[in-house]
């Protein structure tokens, strides 16, 4: 007898296959889970045009936004996106938009949840653990799952200049989320919370005095099966380095350029460094490459489509990514999927994705220390192609655990465990 599929109410305010970051991550989760369960997706109307192209016959409900908040959303973007994005301020100012969505979802789906329409309620976004979820009030007899949530990671000591560029002075706004009605209750009464990092897991346990059994580590990022390649063989005496990401201060592309500039000229001649991405720091980085004398080996692509980015991954040998505040670090998974050993700071998400078998992790003691160590590790991998090959093979093996289909299977198994309890 064929077993009936689980009936899942999946509330994902940000879910969009055409956008980057959280909306795309959420869509990849949803796309795979709906293959394995009967999913009703509840999302913001802002995602409708993109989702309708891939909806097929699946149930999707688009929650409308009031005209006043549409104008308010446009105003927020004008205020917070002048040059580098002021994320702390944007997240704080965006709460009224989420609050309306949160209220309307609860009002519409509360009766259905109470009547037993769904086997489980899963609220996936926002990923940042700052907002309450009103619908939990209706989940007395239906398991409620929140997450993966991730964030709250501070800048490491010694990176005050970078922190100022990233508007860290506005981080005090986080404390006001604790005053939002229902915020504490959401975390204290959820049947299960998934945390995207060890840091966030420990932060939530301490903040809400949560039982260890109520919160699981579950990295939010994943990888497409089509991205996963084969381990690399190295026969050339040269090495191609790669950086992929927005060109903002905390991503640290400037430290990678400075690290290259400290290497002997004989070593530099055997290296190329491709920087894929765009952002407010691009002009300064190009100038830095010129003034440090490495403009001949540092190449900037600007913004390019994902398919072209994949080509650069495949043509490179080592992923060089000195980001000092990466909650997740999806680009490290992409690099590993293409068989690239990673050189990264041992901090936050990057330190959890990359292992000693798949790359080299460096403690971010200071900016000067990172530059020195990146230079040393680049030269080490250049001179040891067999080690690169071993790391390449291990990277491919490790990243298979993060393939979206495998992650969806894990999620389905979690749903079943929660329902049985």
What's the overall geometry? globular
Number of helices, where a helix is a run of at least 4 consecutive DSSP H or I residues: 17
The CATH architecture assignment of the largest domain turns out to be: 3-Layer(aba) Sandwich
Average pLDDT over all residues:
93
Describe this structure in words.
Helix 13 (330-337) links the parallel strand 11 and strand 12. The protein has 421 residues and is of the alpha/beta class. It starts with 6 loop residues before the first strand and ends with a helix. The protein is built from 17 helices and 13 strands. The strands form two sheets. A seven-stranded parallel beta sheet has the order 3-2-1-4-5-6-7, with helices on both faces. Strands 10-9-8-11-12-13 form a six-stranded parallel beta sheet, with helices on both faces. It has helices spanning 22-33, 48-52, 67-80, 87-93, 95-114, 160-165, 183-189, 198-208, 253-261, 265-268, 282-291, 306-315, 330-337, 348-353, 367-383, 385-399, 404-420; strands spanning 7-12, 38-44, 59-63, 120-125, 144-149, 192-195, 215-217, 239-244, 271-276, 298-302, 318-320, 342-345, 359-362. It folds into two domains: 7-222 and 403-420, Glycogen Phosphorylase B (Rossmann fold); 225-401, Glycogen Phosphorylase B (Rossmann fold, 3-Layer(aba) Sandwich), CATH 3.40.50.2000. Helix 1 crosses helix 17 and helix 13 (330-337) crosses helix 16. Helix content is 42%, strand content 15%. The radius of gyration is 22 Å and the shape is globular.
